[in-house]
Design a protein that fits this description.
The structure is a single chain. This protein has 336 residues and is an alpha/beta fold. Helices cover 42% and strands 17% of the residues. The strands form 3 sheets. It has a 7-stranded parallel β-sheet with strand order 3-2-1-4-5-6-10, with helices on both faces. Strands 7-9-11 form a 3-stranded mixed β-sheet. The chain is globular, with a radius of gyration of 19 Å. Bound molecules: nicotinamide-adenine-dinucleotide. The site of nicotinamide-adenine-dinucleotide has 31 residues, from helix 1, strand 2, helix 4, strand 5 and strand 7.
């Protein structure tokens, strides 16, 4: 089996590539990533000599490149993770979100269709459903009500993927996962940002009152579900993924400070994000029922091991923060 992972130098993608190589050692994984600011070739450093991992720097919106990769590597299945993924950045500049998340996905679909890829797995987010009140959970039947340019672009991509399934009979599966945490997450997202700031005794900026509720899942549990969606999912279906683990942001920040042995005086409340969704919670019963999957990592353990990873891999996130990671690819792969 030959699979193409797009966005495989990002947080979830780099963990997915590693999981696929470990769980399906006979598969070849081609990894297409543009290495935007969020892509970090250093997150793949341990795979450098792995003959069954082929890294290609390029854009998912480049039809010629995508078609040639699908052909050259006889790709059977695609995991499409490449995306602009940061809500705050989408508020500052939505254009690139449409280019990559919407047009890029459409190019991927066209190429996959032309090359007769057997299954196309679109990695989406619970944010397409918008925000919840104090109760209830999103199911696959919940209406799409995205509230940021990021989530709107992801919702548009989901609809295109499903439409390619209906219109052309392509075998497509869409997954919508809740908030991920774990190693190799870019330190602009809540958990790694707070860990890195606390380790440097910098203030921990918490949006508004910090009572926004998110449903957290370890990246490893998410990625096991993606593999299950490829192998067990039904064509044309959407699967919500989550681990029934809701926490207000402020409580997570407090817990991280406790694990790190730092005081709560580091917390600084800052002005809330415009249109900030109040609560997400996901009902993943369908995925559990149909994919033979369930999350395994308890939040307390996952959070502790994540903190431990950031403590032990200080060089990784420090190079991200200084911007030095951006030259890693040229330094290590430039001559190839
Ligand atoms: N992080 C989460 O909590 C979460 C939850 C649910 C779904 N998702 C989805 O999972 C996917 C991965 O998220 P992430 O958190 O790993 O994001 P990330 O920002 O860490 O990684 C995105 C990767 O895509 C690459 N990329 C961006 N534009 C590209 C393009 N035009 N062509 C090729 N590569 C490009 C970047 O270089 C980067 O390596 C996204 O589609 C996101 O919407 C994320």
């Amino acid at each position: 089996m030959n699979v193409l992972v797009t966005g495989g130098a990002g947080f979830i993608g780099s963990n997915l590539v590693r999981l696929l190589r470990r769980e399906r050692p006979h598969w070849t994984v081609v990894n297409l990533d543009k290495l935007t600011y969020a892509g970090n070739a250093e997150s793949l450093a341990d795979l450098r000599d792995d003959k069954r991992h082929v890294f290609v720097r390029g854009d998912i919106a480049d039809a010629e490149l995508v078609a040639s990769l699908l052909r050259e590597h006889a790709i059977d299945a695609v995991f499409n993770l490449a995306a602009e993924s940061h809500v705050d950045r989408s508020i500052l500049g939505p254009g690139i979100f449409v280019e990559t998340n919407v047009s890029g996905t459409q190019v991927m679909l066209d190429c996959a269709r032309a090359e007769k890829v057997k299954r196309f797995v679109q990695i989406s987010t619970d944010e397409v459903y918008g925000s919840l009140g104090a109760t209830g959970r999103f199911t696959e039947a919940s209406p799409l009500q995205p509230s940021s340019p990021y989530s709107a672009s992801k919702a548009a991509a989901d609809l295109l993927v499903l439409a390619y399934g209906h219109t052309y009979g392509m075998d497509v599966v869409v997954t919508r996962c809740s908030n991920n945490y774990g190693p190799y997450q870019f330190p602009e997202k809540l958990i790694p940002l707070m860990i890195a700031n606390a380790l440097e005794d910098k203030k921990l900026p918490v949006y508004g009152d910090g009572q926004q509720v998110r449903d957290w899942i370890h990246v490893e549990d998410h990625n096991r579900a993606l593999l299950a969606a490829l192998e067990e999912g039904r064509a044309g279906e959407v699967y919500n993924l989550g681990s029934d683990n809701e926490w207000p942001n402020l409580q997570i920040v407090g817990r991280l400070l406790e694990i790190l042995g730092k005081g709560r005086d580091l917390i600084a409340h800052v002005q809330d994000r415009p249109g900030h969704d109040r609560r997400y919670a996901i009902d993943a019963a369908k995925a559990q029922r149909e994919l033979g999957w369930s999350p395994r990592i308890a939040f307390a353990d996952g959070l502790a091991s994540t903190v431990d990873w950031y403590v032990k891999n200080r060089g990784w996130w420090e190079r991200v923060r200084t911007g030095e990671y951006r030259t890693f690819y040229e330094r290590n792969y430039g001559a190839r």
